DNA sequence: AATGAATGAGGATTCATTCAT
DNA sequence: TATGAATGAATCCTCATTCAT
């Protein structure tokens, strides 16, 4: 007997909509992706999308909720840890996992910042980034130390897609990026307080 | 007192359109900014925009042509220099100048990558970034050296806007970002070839 | 009494759009007929038209496909017949039926040749006319014999509308036109080969 | 000294506008030809067109007035002649001259009937055609005799452009068309009164 | 004799969304 | 669990026309 409906079992269609939508959002941007396009790709009607989601934005919200959970977990974890360099570096390692675990979503966010900012997910994304950077940098450290911390973050964001210009095994590239990021927070720590 | 030009101020209109358009593009994104909105802000008709520009996209193209020139000049300059560390660092300094000389444009590009990619300016932007990164990194250096070079670039891009969360004088922040970027290429150089 | 279909009269809409569109196209021309006009006449929104047809041009294409079928059938039939005078005359009789069976369409085509030529239906219309005239005239007959054949065709086209200046029963007029056309091909046949 | 301004000498530009306009009207139709297009082809501004003509329609009117004069003269001449077969045939000969003397104009009229009908020139064109056909056909002759007369007219109209599918010297084709037309009125005459 | 700048009206088309079935 | 039919609002864009210079 097939898997019993646990919850009424979030239908397969729902997931397929999310998949296709995310793919198209990431490819052409949120605004340029129409519901017609999504529906056509799935061979269903636009109206079908509305059976599963309240609105276009809601599709995106649901995707983000499902895929960005690891980042929230990482933040929750980090908040319970001592603010040591080791913790910060473990944060980066976990963040790398989270990003590479949902490349299309984070690519979408990276490439549609203007749009995302005006959508309801904008708020939660912003607060996650803020939380992460608050935990990485010491508030009373020098400006360049702070910059190094933020750069560690951006290096991972940008690195995810922009490194396609460099040859090499994806996992090695990811490792290289992480290494640079780890190094940056280490240097930030070393450079000490402002002055 | 300088007599104003014959026609009162007739047609700085073109410039005013560019200004308002860029402001709105940067604020709400390219797709969400309608020509109606631009026209209303300027208190002219939509048709007036079409007198000055062939197309919505053409407005953006013209802005980009006008404001991104310094980057092209920088690339031209760099191509005539020896590939030393000093040259690379001077490139970063000039790039910093170019970026901070047209913040709204580069903010727009940064935050609308998905859109920009599908627009005609996408090609020229991509080729500029490629050119810059080709000149910063040594092709046979280690992966992490290459990552460091690209990160130097991204640090400046992202830094331009994302540093708003950090207190401090803008010029000082810019200097701090540049410093980190300079440091990254220095480290890249130091770490030597792969292996 | 025939039970009307489930949905009251839902979507004979498509047919109604075609009808009104053709009427307006024939009355004011294709370009001067706006979709707003069509929609208003039907008391639906412009968007409703786009539910049923991809494009303004597509409305016309669909009309032409539906109504010009008899001409295609006639051509197919004629191609399987011997090239005798009797065949040619039967062609004209059937062509007369086809034309009078869809007067508004052929009136539209006749009166909007410049427009039609630049539309996708232009090609198919042109090829139909060519096919017909190729089958009516002998390639090696005298110039005036060929002119007579083409004139037989044009007489029917023009006659359909231009004869409104002449009093008399429509069916009688149609018969008179057909008679003249039949006579023209007979004369063409009689006049023999060039020389 | 150059030719003295006779009338202020209807400038050369005026004529050039008419030429280009007629060419484009005939090529793409009246509605699809924009003043911008005309102006661009002449390398002047749209506003310049308005110096020479009150409106778009006025350009067409002026062309028609200039080029269709021969038809009016022919009608005037015919009205002073006896209604014999010889007169009718001379009418056709002169009409052929008039048509072939201004091919683009008559091509335009032929291919844009729907448009022309709604323009001010429509009235004068219609009345000319009516006048001609009234003079060709005897009001109490048989229907088919009348059809033959109108067909003589249409043969010339349609023949002007549609004969491009037939090989042969243009002048010979024109002669062949005229011959058929002459023949048609002769037959009409011969077939006598209705009954 | 012509231009530069602008307008107002209107064009076709697309979109997210709704609702009865 | 979906569809078919439709809407209202908005989009970009084009056009004929005007007028001060």
Note down, in words, how this protein is organized.
4 copies of one chain form a homotetramer. The first copy, chain A, is 74% helix and 0% strand. Mean pLDDT of chain A is 92; it is low at 1-7. The radius of gyration of chain A is 19 Å and the shape is elongated. With 195 residues, chain A is mostly helical. Chain A has helices at residues 12-28, 35-42, 46-52, 56-67, 69-79, 85-100, 103-111, 113-117, 120-136, 143-162, 170-191. Chain A has 2 domains: 8-54, Arc Repressor Mutant, subunit A; 64-191, Tetracycline Repressor, domain 2. The structure holds a DNA duplex (21 and 21 nucleotides).
List the helices and strands and how they pair.
The structure is a homotetramer of 195-residue chains.
Chain A: H1 12-28, H2 35-42, H3 46-52, H4 56-67, H5 69-79, H6 85-100, H7 103-111, H8 113-117, H9 120-136, H10 143-162, H11 170-191
Helix pairs in contact in A: 1-2, 1-4, 1-7, 5-6, 5-9, 6-10, 6-11, 7-10, 10-11
Chain B binds a DNA duplex (21 and 21 nucleotides) through α3.
């Amino acid at each position: 007997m097939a898997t019993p409906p646990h919850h009424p079992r979030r239908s397969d269609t729902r997931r397929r909509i999310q998949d296709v939508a995310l793919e198209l959002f990431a490819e052409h941007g949120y605004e340029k992706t129409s519901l017609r396009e999504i529906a056509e790709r799935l061979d269903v009607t636009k109206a079908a999308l509305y059976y599963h989601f309240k609105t276009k934005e809601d599709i995106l919200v649901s995707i983000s909720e499902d895929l960005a959970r690891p980042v929230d977990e990482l933040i929750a974890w980090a908040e319970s840890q001592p603010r040591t360099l080791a913790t910060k570096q473990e944060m980066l390692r976990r963040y790398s996992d989270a990003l590479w675990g949902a490349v299309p979503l984070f690519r979408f966010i990276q490439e549609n910042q203007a749009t995302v900012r005006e959508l309801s997910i904008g708020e939660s994304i912003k607060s996650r980034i803020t939380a992460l950077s608050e935990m990485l940098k010491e508030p009373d450290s020098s400006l360049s130390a702070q910059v190094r911390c933020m750069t560690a973050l951006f290096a991972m964001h940008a690195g995810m897609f922009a490194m396609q210009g460099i040859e090499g095994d994806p996992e090695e590239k990811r490792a290289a990026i992480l290494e640079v990021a780890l190094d940056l927070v280490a240097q930030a720590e070393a450079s000490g307080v402002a002055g």
